[in-house]
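Practice problem: predict the structure.
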Amino acid sequence: MIVRVKNLVKRYGELLALDHLSFTVNDGEVFGLLGPNGSGKTTAINCILSLLEYDKGEVEIFGRPMRPDAYDIKREIGIVMQNVAVYNELTVYENIDYFCGLYVEDKKLRKRLVEEAINFVGLKDFKGYYPKKLSGGLLRRLNIACGIAHKPKLIILDEPTVAVDPQSRYKILEGILELNRLGATVIYTSHYMEEVEQICSRIMIIDKGRAIATGTKDELKAMITLGEKITVESQHITPGQLNRLRALPHVMEAEYKNKQLVIKSGKGANNLEAVLDFIKKEKIQYGKIYSELPTLNDVFLEITGKQLRD
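Answer:
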């Protein structure tokens, strides 16, 4: 076990930011903290790293208690926070060299590590650039390089793809998976469910400072009653047809709006076939029809009653 968090409580006056939060991160995982903005993800990370004092609870990293002066533990951690933290007066190379130098004194070794980090994040052609000359995506990559150049065992990334272009987002996510393949354990926080589904081996959904569900993406989706969402494009559906559709077995909800019929079905093997049979029987004219399996947003919605991005 790389990280153990037990009954973590953090208050800001009357606001309970972390409500007895507990979880573990195993060696070799990409562990996702998924929740909307303001759910407590960043507060949890800051408490885990002893950057923020908390009211109650225990934090262990590498089997040892984490404290503000636990420098032996901190040397093995790479941190990439949500807000880009680089020096504008230093070039790309100089920034990475500076942050790597906080952990690695040997200049020869540090030079090799800096070059490897630059190549890893795809900034080889920008080594002499100053941060203000970089796009948002390249700046995020520089931020990541500064956090991982010293080859840490544990890497913590807090919303690293916020406000970046699709190409840079793809590069960042691929880089995280490669770091994991090279042996790093990763904690990844995000409110983008698609990213978490793509890269995380295990996920904790967090809301209002509480862990509301933890598991693999398939385990989380198995927790809810929704089995399938079927969308039918149609010019006209009568109220009577809608009521008869709602009465079908396994149909949980059916709504018709903006010429789209959206049907939420429970778990079952023949939901789409049953809908098609109904459309044929009712002689409903339709265009496109498609089916979607549950997403992590559906899990969050069913458990909390709100969307991930509310």
